[in-house]
Specification:
The structure holds two protein chains of two kinds. By secondary structure, chain A is an all-beta fold. Chain A is built from no helices and eleven strands.
Chain lengths: 115, 111
């Protein structure tokens, strides 16, 4: 298995632009998670899906952030409009059966820089 | 929610030394994982260990769920072991929940 695949690996954009981050979970995993990592706040959960349905989005910082999972093999995290404080590394993770059997697997992350 | 505390926050060792990293969690858990974030930022899953002991080469981990702590042991450290080690956990009554991460232990192995 290729693991959790995220794209792009790096993104540099100007303030006010729309940014879309992409994630392909491991085939057969029914949970997908989006995390953000910053120096100040560490790793924090933004949102997670179960069988493509958003379950908990309480970690999404504000309305500028949105996430979708149109099918079992693809998810997007969109920021519109982007701001410099959104600069961070965004990770996607997936798990089987809630992670109670084998844990969670993380992608390589997308490093976002908003200038 | 679950609180996860890791110690020490920083650790500098010479190559070949052994180390023990600790993770305390505030409540009962049914998922606990150790991750290594390498200098390139990748989060590598080391162990899924809600209880008991596991070993993988020079690394081993033990979780004592009743006492709410987990330990990660690194023996014969190598420079490639450098990076940040995270403990993460959750408790779920049924489905899943997001992992709560500790702040990490920053390990530097000097040649």
């Amino acid at each position: 298995d290729a693991g959790v695949i995220q794209s792009p690996r790096h993104e540099v954009t100007e303030m006010g632009q729309e940014v879309t981050l992409r994630c392909k979970p491991i085939s057969g995993h029914d949970y997908l998670f989006w995390y953000r990592q910053t120096m100040m706040r560490g790793l924090e959960l933004l949102i997670y899906f179960n069988n493509n349905v958003p379950i908990d989005d309480s970690g999404m910082p504000e309305d500028r952030f949105s996430a979708k999972m149109p099918n079992a093999s693809f998810s997007t995290l969109k920021i519109q409009p982007s701001e410099p404080r959104d600069s961070a590394v965004y990770f996607c993770a997936s798990s089987e059966s809630g992670g109670a059997l084998y844990g969670y697997t993380f992608g390589s992350g997308t490093r976002l820089t908003v200038v | 929610g679950i609180q996860v505390e890791q110690s020490p926050p920083d650790l500098i060792l010479q190559e070949g030394a052994n180390s023990t990293l600790r993770c305390n969690f505030s409540d009962s858990v049914n998922n606990l994982q150790w991750f290594h974030q390498n200098p390139w930022g990748q989060l590598i899953n080391l162990f899924y260990i809600p209880s008991g002991t596991k070993q993988n080469g020079r690394l081993s981990a033990t979780t004592v769920a009743t006492e709410r702590y987990s330990l990660l042991y690194i023996s014969s450290s190598q420079t490639t072991d450098s990076g940040v080690y995270f403990c993460a956990s959750f408790y779920s009554g049924g489905g899943a929940d997001g992992l709560t991460f500790g702040k990490g232990t920053h390990l530097i192995i000097q040649p």
